[in-house]
Amino acid sequence: MGIVVQKYGGTSVASTDRIRNVARRIVATAEKGHPVVVVVSAMGHTTDQLMGQALEISPVPRARELDMLLSAGERISMSLLSMAIIDMGREAISLTGSQAGIVTDTTHTKARIVDVRARRILEALDAGKIVIVAGFQGVSTISNDVTTLGRGGSDTTAVALAAALGAEVCEIYTDVDGVYTADPRVVPDARKLHVATYEEMLEMAACGARVLMLRSVEYARNYKVVLHVRSSFNNEQGTFVKEGDERMEKALISGVVHDTSEAMIRIRRVPDRPGIAAKVFGSLAAEAINVDMIVQNVSEDGRTDQTFTLPRADLPRSEEALGRIAAEIGAEGWTAEPEIGKVSLVGAGMRSHPGVAAKMFQTLAQAGINIEMISTSSIRISVVVQAAEVERAVRLIHAAFELPQGAILREAHGQMPEISSSELEGV
Ligand code: ASP
Ligand code: MG
Q1: Domains of the chain, CATH where assigned
Q2: How close is the Cα of 152 to the center of ligand 2, in Å?
Q3: Tell me, what's the pLDDT at 248?
């Protein structure tokens, strides 16, 4: 039987009772005959608490030491979980990221996995053991230091192990039932997706869906690892994330995602000549400020506005750079609008269906919601609106595209896809 990799998030192992509950699920999977490798996150808010302690000691903790500290959270959950399994009468062994062969580059606090040396895991599996691996961490073989993979990084550990072990499936256990067509806290009739393609999931993760770490989806796509996102609190089937194929029923739209963590910056009346954008965004990149949507207007009298979004948390430390950049390029000034949010419509079906953007904008127009910025990819349309309008916008767009009913595109062989519902009529 195929190897199964299971990843349990922080809420699933938040208490010793929950750890015992997780141990029971793992033992049940092993009992079916599967070799099982488990990746755990730190218990509950452990990582936040450790981070808080670090900041009490030092305003800017040394990154190497921070990784030593943060990696401790997963060591606690992995050893407790292993003990619980052993107590149920099965053999288990816990391994740190380093012991499990997770080799990363040297970038502390956001390291990337460069190799997985799974020998020790395979030996333990051969000996009939359930293997518990600490998520979110690895080791650099260049510096010999422990590294962490960035917040939410246990997802990536799980996918990397599943790829290296050729696992049948990588199950991501969390506190929600799967990936929904919208955040169920905002849209009560949001529907669970049975399946999403890697590219849809990548767009959703990048636009604010928090179920999976973006990097883990990239990794899964690169190595074709089938993901199953599901709840550790019930036995329901969750959402599969995998490559699309012709037999898959395709939804025109797979979801409406929102993100209220960004702020909008406008640099006003920038001289319109070659090299200016390179200078603006080059300077921001040099300060490690991650810019998201960028819009430049058509110029008038040789000047134009440049508008973009960045993480709101980065706004305070961007202000100095923005002032300097605006002065250097001879812009008229800059403004920040922190109270904005981004609403994105994602769906592979929009590639072959005109009118999706029009319908989305019309829906917002009818509700009197002003669009501040627009950006698109071939399967995504994102708009920036006032923060106070985000939830209403999500609900309206979700309803307009009939997501609660699950409008499906049926692609007959060799024919252009048709929409089964009254979708897009008159648009
Ligand atoms: N414990 C880490 C975090 O809270 C990693 C993870 O949960 O995936 O970000
Ligand atoms: Mg997580």
Answers
A1: 4-175 (3.40.1160.10), 259-337 (3.30.2130.10), 342-424 (3.30.2130.10)
A2: 4
A3: 67
Regarding the beta carbon of 347 and ligand 1, being less than 6 Å apart is answered no
Q: For ligand 1, say whether the CB of 152 is within 6 Å of any of its atoms.
A: yes
Q: Report which protein residue has its CA nearest ligand 1's atom 5.
A: 152
SS3 category, 209: coil
Q: Is 135 in the pocket of ligand 1 (CB under 6 A)?
A: yes
Taking 80 as the threshold, does the pLDDT of residue 415 lie above it?
A: no
DSSP letter (8 states) at residue 410: E
Cβ(153)–Cβ(107) below 8 Å: no
The residues that bridge with 95 in the sheet, in sequence order, are 133
pTM of the full predicted structure?
0.88
Distance 48 CA to ligand 2 centre (A): 12
Q: Give residue 422's pLDDT.
A: 38
Confidence of residue 411 (pLDDT cuts 50, 70, 90): very low
Distance 212 CA to ligand 2 centre (A): 7
Q: Whose CA is nearest to atom 9 of ligand 1?
A: 151
In 3D space, the residue among 69, 71, 75, 81 whose CA is nearest the CA of residue 15 turns out to be 81
The confidence band for 105, taking pLDDT boundaries of 50, 70 and 90, is: very high
Q: Are 254 and 397 in contact (CB under 8 A)?
A: no
Residue 41 CA to ligand 1 centre (angstroms): 5
Per residue in 214-226, pLDDT tens? 999 999 999 999 9
